[in-house]
Every structure is written in C-alpha cells, then in structure tokens.
Design goal:
Shape: elongated
Radius of gyration: 25 Å
Helix content: under 10%
C-alpha cells in the first residue's frame, strides 16, 4: 500500500518557523517555512533548512537536520491500515500486518493507525527490503512488555511514530531485557534504523531497566509531548539526536539525551542538535552528552538535576533559554567518549577528562544561559569563546572549582554579550588579553552574598545579577566597559572601584575560603600557582595561537534534496 499525503498543516510549519528563528550577531537560526503544496511519500523527502548553515567552530550544518516529512505528521486515514490491539485477539485490516499471538509485525511501506492495548506484547517493524518509509500512528495505545521493547524496528528505511491529536499513549517495559534475536534490544522503543517521533498527542514511556528511546542511526523528535522515565539514557541516538518543536520531559538514572558513535571513522556522528522545543531533564549522569558536539540553537531547556549539565567535545549555543543545575560542571567541553559511571581515586566523580585538550571548544553566540553548579560553571578543557548572549553563573562555594574555566593550554576569549559569574577565588579565572570586550575579575577579602552590579562613573547600571549562593570572586564582562574608565562593582554591601587599564583586569587577592571541595573531576584549566602556593590568576596562552572569528551574516539557505 502506498502512502498518499494530504495537504500540509500550515499552522504546524508556521509555529515551528516562528519559534525556531533566533537572531544573533546578525544571523538567523531557525526552521524556515516551506511550500504548502502536497507531496507524495515517494518523493525525495526534501530537507528543511534551518537558516544559518554553519557557525564558526560548529561541526553541524543545520540545512539537513529535518526533512519536510519529519515536520509534517499528517496522514490520510482512509488510506491507512488499521490495527486494533487486544490480548490474543489483535486484528488488522491488511495482510501487510502479520499477527502471531501478541507480536504484531508490520512488513510493508505505508501508514498504520494503531489503537487498543497489550498486557505483554510488541509492535515490530520488519521491512527486510528497506525500500519504504513506515508511519505508525498511535491512536490511544497502551502496551506493556515484560522483557523486550514495546516497539521494535528490526529493519526499515525510516520509521515515523506519530501520536494522534488528543490521544494519550503508554509504553512500558517492566523487567530485564531478554534477547529475541541477534540485536541487543535495550529500549522501550528500539530501532535499528532512522527513527522520528512526532505528532500532536502524548506519549508516556516507562522503562524499569534499559533506555527510553534508542535509535542505532539518527533519532529525531519533532512534535508532540514526550514523557520518559527510564533507568538508562532517556533519548539515545547513535549517529545523532535532533529535536525541534516538541515538549519533552525526561527522568533517568543516566544521561537525559545521549549520542555516541565510536564506529564512525569520519568523526561526523555522535551529536545532539536542538533547534527548538521545551525540554526538562532530571538525570543521574549528564543532562545532555554528545561525543562529538552538543549544539543548541533555540528552545526552552531546563536541566533540573544532573552530574554535568551539557557536555560534548564541542558545545555550541547560538540561542534559546538554557537553565542548568549540576553536581559538577554546568557546561563542559571534554575530549573523548563518555566515561559515565563512578570512578575511584582522587576527586571521585564520573566523566573524568584530561585537564587540557586542544580539540575541546565552547562557543557561545547568543541565548540566555543560567547555571548553578557545584563544580565549574562553564568549563572547556580546551578553549572558550563568547561572542554574545547573556550568561549568569552561580558557581561553586568551594575553592576546588571555578565559575569560568579553560584548559591548561587553552584560551578564554570574550567579544560580546554579558557575563556575570560568581564563585570562590581559589581557582578563579578571567578572560584573555586576546579578548575584544573588557572583563573584570574581582576577588574579595571575605565571602558575601546578594546582588552583583557594575556601574559607570555617572552611576548607570551596566549589568546586574543576584546569585543564589555566597561568593568571594566575580567575573564580569558586558557591553559599555571601556579601557581608561573607572567602574564600581557592588557585591552585597561592598563597593569596589576598579580602574580599567587593560582589556582583562584582575583586582584583589586569591583566598582559599571554602576549601578545595569534593570534586575536581571535570578536568579543565586552573589558575597558575606560585611557589608559595598562591594562585596568580594568570592565563596560559592559546594552544594553537589562533582564535576563530564570529560568523558573518549569511543569507537564508534553501532546502536541498535529501533522502533522510
């Protein structure tokens, strides 16, 4: 049976396009609108452009992240195969569905609308020819499985799982996974091939063991409400995890969103890309971990609990609202594959990386970022570049970590935006003299609490923030600061006048107030220590002696023809 699409839902595309547009440094990042004309499912499944194709430092080209059909989950019910689930009594309207007890197998391209419940069953997709796209519409489904995936894609070109408008659907795995074939099935939804979750309904996923959703290729979530409670990773894509326009809530003992592909020889896989959406994560390990890169272009992201909040060898933020609460680093660029799991020895903790790695980069071009970290706030084990955005850091209340941190041989450069980062002075770092925007590192004689603000000679407030924790060190940088001028930094009840005589100013002595704390596990750079043990706060030079430049304005990219 061939899928025949109906007229596209223009309101869906309009909402996605509007919510995804992010302006930064004169560049737009978001999902572009597209033609309203109908397409056949047998067409090229052309790719949606997300405006700005690349930004300096990022490995991700946004023009090929979402196809037209990823974003258009409409279907013609009159052309669809219907499947009604019932224990030992399931029925289907077409011979392309094979029913064997409570295992229902879809074998051909098409649209399949499923309703009903199974107390211990499975939906399988096994299109061995892998010559077509299959859309599964969950129209009020309740499936439990005691020892395997509720939905298992064994073979297909690409599968779309769509939640029907106004419906609530439940998938749950209640026991340990038992192999049913040669694949290591370990997720409530498990796919060997490309997988897209979309729709207008609600999908609840419960996994007492294993992961929530797994794709051994690309995993995309482009619509609907997705609630995941899993033992292991919430969303796991081997090549990538890509999100736009969905509302997602994840509670997990491991990573909330995870992408890792150690088999990719060209090192172009293992990344997370978020264009838009509302995402809430409570994680036992990382909130988000992409081995290659984690990139955020938009959306409303709240990581309420995590060991490390956002992690990748490269972390890029161009827009959106990001809030992170973490036991260790808030944002961390660490080299190599994820090392999740407890480690013994000095520092303890989980993802231990080398203190310096020239491949590790953090790029912040825009967005509103707030971090409350017990470890480093913004930590690159290589270089850190800030071109824009608003960044507030409630850093550690111990001297074993820093609010802003770079690799031992790295550099920290700021060229725009607003940064107010508070913490303890023992490991505090400021920005490099290579910066083009003035920064101030102020170390206080005693620990204080309350609002931080900076005013110019006329009393104009240039920036302010009220941290939630006590601090004795503040790093401030914002537009309006100029060399040769004097500014007043107010910290709680203390006022300090600072004369700016260079692009990077350090004022005050280092104190080890608060001790070293319990964790230095994130690696990352630290202040240099003299022979008497005091920290100098001086910055080591860049590892390669070169800095990237902010992206130039580009025209909107047109969609290409992709078969993703």
């Amino acid at each position: 049976m061939n899928y025949k699409s109906v007229k596209k839902k223009l309101s869906v595309f309009g909402a996605v396009a509007l919510a995804s547009v992010v302006m930064f440094a004169g560049c737009a990042v978001g999902t572009s609108s597209e033609s309203s004309s109908s397409e056949s499912a047998e067409s090229t499944d052309s790719t949606e452009s997300t405006g700005e194709t690349t930004v300096d430092g990022s490995t991700i080209d946004t023009t090929d992240q979402f196809t037209d059909r990823d974003l258009d989950w409409s279907y013609d019910e009159s052309e669809a195969v219907t499947i009604t689930l019932a224990d030992s009594a399931s029925e289907a309207s077409d011979s392309s569905v094979v029913i064997d007890g409570d295992t229902i197998t879809i074998t051909e391209e098409g649209v399949y609308v499923i309703s009903g419940s199974l107390s211990n069953g499975q939906i399988q997709v096994n299109n061995e020819a892998e010559d077509g796209k299959i859309q599964i519409v969950l129209n009020g489904v309740d499936i439990t499985n005691e020892s395997s995936a509720c939905i298992y894609v064994a073979a297909a070109e690409k599968v779309f799982i769509t939640t029907a408008e106004g419906t609530e659907n439940n998938l749950a795995v209640t026991g340990e996974y038992v192999n049913i074939d040669d694949n290591n099935i370990d997720g409530v939804i498990f796919s060997k091939d490309d997988l897209v979750l979309n729709g207008d309904g609600v999908l609840n996923i419960e996994g007492s063991t294993g992961h929530g959703v797994v794709s051994k290729d690309d995993l995309k979530v482009t619509g609907g409400t997705l609630n995941i409670n899993s033992s292991d990773h919430g969303l796991s894509g081997k090549d990538s995890v890509r999100i736009t326009g969905a509302t997602i809530s994840i509670t997990t003992n491991e990573d909330g969103i995870h992408s890792s592909n150690e088999d990719d020889e060209e090192t172009t896989a293992g990344y997370i890309y978020i264009a838009d959406g509302t995402i809430t994560i409570n994680a036992g390990d990382d909130g988000m971990h992409g081995d290659l890169e984690t990139r955020i272009d938009g959306g409303d992201i709240t990581i309420e609990k995590a060991y490390e909040g956002i992690e990748g060898q490269i972390v890029t933020v161009t827009g959106g609202t990001v809030s992170v609460t973490s036991d260790d680093d808030g944002i961390n660029a660490g080299g190599g594959a994820d090392g999740s799991g407890a480690t013994s020895g000095f520092g303890g903790g989980k993802d231990r990386f080398a203190s310096s790695n020239s491949d590790c980069k953090i790029y912040i071009y825009g967005g509103e970022i707030s971090i409350n970290s017990s470890g480093d706030g913004v930590d690159s084990n290589g270089d850190l570049y800030i071109y824009g955005g608003t960044i507030y850091v409630d850093g550690p209340e111990n001297s074993g970590n820093a609010a802003i941190d770079k690799g031992d041989q790295g550099t920290a450069v700021i060229s725009g935006g607003t940064v107010i980062a508070t913490g303890m002075s023992g490991m505090a770092e400021s920005f490099s003299e290579d910066s083009t925007q003035v920064s101030i590192l102020l170390n206080l004689e005693s620990t204080v609490s309350g609002e931080v603000s900076i005013t110019d000679a006329e009393g104009n407030v240039l920036a302010s923030y009220t941290p939630s924790k006590s601090y004795n060190s503040i790093t401030i940088s914002c537009e309006g600061l100029s060399q040769g001028e004097t500014y007043t930094v107010v910290t709680g009840d203390t006022s300090t006048e600072i004369e700016v005589d260079s692009v990077s100013v350090t004022e005050g002595e280092v104190s080890m107030t608060g001790g070293m704390g319990g964790a230095m596990q994130g690696g990352g750079g630290r202040g240099n220590f003299s022979e008497d043990g005091s920290a100098s706060g001086e910055m080591t030079p860049p590892s390669d002696g070169e800095m990237p430049s902010a992206p130039e304005e580009q025209s909107d990219s047109s969609s290409d023809s992709s078969t993703l």
